[in-house]
Design a protein that fits this description.
Blueprint: H1 19-23, E1 29-34, E2 37-42, E3 49-53, E4 56-58, E5 63-64, H2 74-83, E6 87-92, E7 94-96, E8 106-108, E9 115-118, H3 124-127, H4 138-141, H5 158-167, E10 175-178, H6 184-192, E11 200-203, E12 207-208, E13 211-212, E14 221-222, E15 226-227, H7 230-238, E16 244-248, E17 251-252, E18 258-259, E19 262-264, E20 267-268, H8 274-280, E21 283-287, E22 291-292, E23 296-299, E24 305-309, E25 313-314, H9 327-333, E26 336-340, E27 344-348, E28 356-360, H10 366-370, E29 379-386, H11 400-404, E30 411-414, E31 419-423, E32 428-429, H12 432-453, E33 456-461, E34 466-467, H13 472-486, E35 487-493, H14 495-508, H15 512-519, H16 529-540, H17 546-553, H18 563-579
Parallel strand pairs: 3-6, 4-7, 6-9, 10-11, 10-16, 16-21, 21-26, 28-29, 31-33, 32-34, 33-35
Antiparallel strand pairs: 1-2, 4-5, 5-8, 11-12, 12-15, 13-14, 17-18, 19-20, 22-25, 23-24, 26-27, 27-28, 30-31
């Protein structure tokens, strides 16, 4: 279903770029019916010549990629060409004796390679550099790890303002995709706010973890945790592996459609992986200035935004040049979609057929600085909020409490079987003062429960606890004292196993009437696909798949489930999730 509602949909052009392509007998995309559901079929194209890159080739043509920052699908590209009867040309830095390469490090075997071109050593900086601006950096290949304090904070600018507002949508343990351009700033803000250790950043070429490189070096990452093939990454993305994506936007329409693929009739940029990523992610954040070309803004010491000069090009327009993302399709899929600018935040949901303005920056005028700079009329929320003032201040935001929640929120007690859940993800203990606060909170909370129920059974998530090495002896000594005083027994889990155990207890004591009120965010007496998806993520740390949503709603985005239906639907989905 990837591509439905966008310009690659046969109903909207089928991905053709000009009149000649539209008249061609070969149409690369068609619609097919699978089990009563319309899907898009992308036809494979024959590859006559494949040009790939590696580091070393032996005299037989076996290739290794030890100095490459990405894997780049060399094997798949070579196989596609050979299977089409084409040829494969490999560019390398050096030759090795036949049989001298470690066979487990061979990325492309010799039978797939027809020709090897060795770049002369004096030309390698220009013709075989790691990126447009980076000759070679071993921290991008994983050979060394660069110190984290080498990551400089972004200077205050409209770019940082947009990245900071987008950052507030992050939660611990999220798997994140960052697009090129403005979205790269989210990684820098996450580093500045000490959040990188608690999320997994990824980029479509195949990188998990680390800090994605920016600008003309975009693609690899500094200090990556893992690097896989690009096609494998898209299998992960298309399967719903992402929790949130941060993407750029060139144009945005009243219904929330986004164009990033065609800037003008004669300028074709192409979508890259944008369509796959934006249609397969639960939460999508589009990042763009409200206007472009000449926009000049500054921030004040008291957290306000000043528009010094307005941009001459409006980004929110009546009609986009090409639909690379469909707002209506996002509503049908139950996605949460936000559009973040330096002065305003919009959302597209099933509540309105057009964008809804939900936040504005302190210091801006709603009519002059926002509404007058948009070609259409959005819905202005009856609960219009100010963006957080810390976004516009020079100093660090210290946003951990918003990202992780208060320490009190980390406790969850089930009186029925006397079990206390404690989630320590994101807690940092760096000083004796931190330790005093931490153990004081534990004693106060546990003391209240013990006074009424006695000692308790503990389930603790230690994944993501950051403990200064010099404090380890004190920490474990006082933890043992706490255990002797308050615990009957204790089980320690990491990440997903902790949430799974907690889900089991929630399922046993589920108050569906209360849960329905929490899920029904617009208080209209029914729960739609977006509300159900967001509620499951918030309450149960569980991502609903598109298939599950379609089974509940039958593909009808406007359809909502009643309070009577809700209890059955939640029970079925939770039971299904526990069996998976």
């Amino acid at each position: 279903m990837v591509g439905t509602g966008t310009f690659v949909d046969p109903d909207l052009g089928g991905g053709t770029c000009n009149e000649a392509a539209r008249k061609s007998l070969f149409q690369p995309v068609s619609k097919i019916d699978i089990d009563g559901q319309q899907n898009l079929l992308y036809k494979a194209l024959p590859i006559n010549v494949a040009i790939i890159r590696a580091t070393t080739a032996d005299t037989s043509g076996n290739l290794t990629i030890e100095r490459e920052s990405l894997m780049c699908d060399q094997m798949n590209t070579a196989m596609a060409a050979r299977n089409s009867g084409g040829i494969v040309i490999a560019q390398v830095m050096r030759l090795a004796k036949n049989g001298s390469l470690n066979p487990k490090q061979v990325a492309v075997p010799a039978p797939l390679v027809d020709c090897v071109v060795v770049v002369d050593e004096e030309d390698q900086d220009e013709l075989h550099s790691m990126s447009f601006v980076e000759r070679y950096n071993p921290s991008l290949t994983g050979q060394i790890r660069s110190p984290e304090d080498a990551i400089a904070p972004l200077p205050m600018s409209q770019r940082k303002v947009i990245a900071r507002r987008a950052f507030f949508e992050l939660k611990p343990d999220m798997v994140v995709n960052l697009g090129i351009g403005l979205p790269e700033g989210v990684a820098r803000v996450a580093a500045e706010e000490d959040m990188l250790d608690y999320i997994t950043l990824s980029t479509e070429p195949g990188v998990f973890g680390g800090l994605p490189a920016s600008g003309h070096s975009f693609g690899p990452a500094y200090n990556p945790a893992a690097v896989i093939e690009m096609n494998q990454m898209f299998d992960f993305y298309d399967g719903g592996g992402l929790d949130i994506s941060f993407l750029g936007a060139a144009q945005i329409s009243p219904r929330g459609d986004v164009n990033v693929s065609r800037m003008s009739k004669d300028r074709l940029t192409g979508p890259g992986g944008f369509i796959d990523i934006s249609q397969s992610t639960d939460v999508v954040m589009f990042m763009s200035p409200l206007t472009a070309s000449g926009l000049d803004v500054t921030t004040t010491k008291n957290g306000k935004l000043i528009i010094n000069k307005e941009g001459s090009i409006k980004k929110f327009v009546n009609m986009v040049g090409e639909v690379t993302f469909s707002g209506d399709e996002a509503v049908r899929r139950g996605q949460k979609v936000l559009y973040v600018t330096e002065r305003a935040v919009f959302r597209r949901s099933s509540h309105h057929p057009v964008l809804e303005l939900i936040e504005i920056a302190p210091g801006v005028d709603l009519q002059k600085d926002v509404l007058n700079q948009i070609e259409f009329e959005p819905v202005v929320s009856s609960n219009l909020k100010l963006m957080d003032r810390r976004i516009f201040l020079e100093k660090k935001m210290n946003a951990a409490s918003e990202i992780f929640g208060s320490f009190k929120d980390r406790f969850s007690y089930h009186a029925e079987d006397n079990v206390m859940f404690l989630n320590l993800c994101g807690i940092s203990l760096n000083s004796d003062e931190d330790m005093d606060w931490y153990f004081r909170c534990l004693r106060e909370t546990f003391g209240e429960v013990k006074s009424e129920h006695g000692k308790m059974n503990m389930v603790i998530n230690y994944d993501g606890l950051n403990l200064n090495g010099s404090l380890e002896n004190r920490y474990w000594q006082e933890t043992q004292e706490i255990a002797n005083e308050f615990y009957l027994n204790v089980r320690r889990f990491a990440g997903g196993a902790f949430h799974h155990a907690q889900l089991g207890k929630k399922l046993e004591t589920l108050d569906t009437d209360k849960l329905f009120r929490e899920f029904d965010s617009n208080d209209n007496g029914s729960v739609n696909a977006t509300e159900l998806r967001e509620g499951f993520r918030r309450e149960f740390c569980r991502r609903l798949t598109q298939k599950e949503l379609d089974q509940v709603f039958g593909g009808d985005a406007e359809h909502g489930i009643s309070k009577k239906q809700f209890a059955f639907v939640v029970q079925e989905l939770l039971e299904g999730g526990r069996k998976q």
